[in-house]
Amino acid sequence: MTVKKFMILMSIIIVLILLADFGGKLFFEFGINEPYKRFRSNEEKTIPLFDALNKDISSQIPVPPGVVKMDEHQSGLVAADHGRYLWIDYKISNTTTDQVLQFYEQVMSTNGWKKYSGLLNRNSILYYRETSCFEINMYDDKYNTIIMHDYFRQAFSPVLPALWIIQLNEFGETHFAHCPPSPGSYP
Questions:
Q1: Is the dihedral of CA 161, 163, 168, 171 positive or negative?
Q2: Which of 28, 44, 51, 76 measures 20 to 30 Å from 152, CA to CA?
Q3: What is the tens place of the pLDDT at every residue in 98-108?
Q4: Omega within 30 of 0 (cis) for the link into 161
Q5: 10 Å Cβ neighbour count for 157?
Q6: Bridge-based pairing state of the strands 124-129 and 114-116
């Protein structure tokens, strides 16, 4: 092989490498990052809508007698967690844990909520109705409730890009709120 042919071959190889690198960067930016960023931007717009659903459920479920509401906060729709959760912390002051659970059982059953039997944690109870979940987690003389809604069954939830795009951007840690929960479920 002559020096001239070798130089042409090397030039072609360098150009192909540069084109592959540039094309890969374009694909990653516009084929992967851009759809994910658009999805997350649309998802952020749903925060007040999910929060309103959660607050509505909270307003329908009274605090048991002998219990003091301590704190509440919303979380979710950040990082790889898709869904919003209303956490409410309570302190049992003038009643028993059993009476609190009986109160919730009465309220929930008379208002169309069903008890979910698939939880492994013995200190937790989950009720669901349509797309809403209400979870109770007991800790001695304190407990919290978590209210959430099924992510996919809300008309305002944004359209997902391909699941592999989401998982690639979230390093495989993607979680969507399902109500009632369904193990291993993805869209």
A1: positive
A2: 28
A3: 999 999 999 99
A4: no
A5: 20
A6: antiparallel
Distances 69 to 37, 99, 105, 145 between C-alpha atoms, Å: 38, 16, 19, 11
Residue 91 pairs in a beta bridge with: 68, 142
Residue 111's Cβ-count burial label (10 Å; 0-12, 13-18, 19+) is exposed
- What are the residue boundaries of the structural domains of the chain, listed by start? 47-149
State how far the Cα of 107 lies from the Cα of 152, in Å rounded to an integer: 27
> For residue 178, what are the CA distances in angstroms to 2, 5, 128?
66, 62, 11
- DSSP letter at 141 equals T
Provide the b/e sequence for 58-96 (b: ≥16 CB within 10 Å): eeebeebeebeeeebebebbeeebbbbbbbbbbebeeee
Rounded to two decimals, what is the model's pTM? 0.80
Q: Which pLDDT tens digit goes with each residue over 43-67?
A: 999 999 999 999 999 999 999 999 9
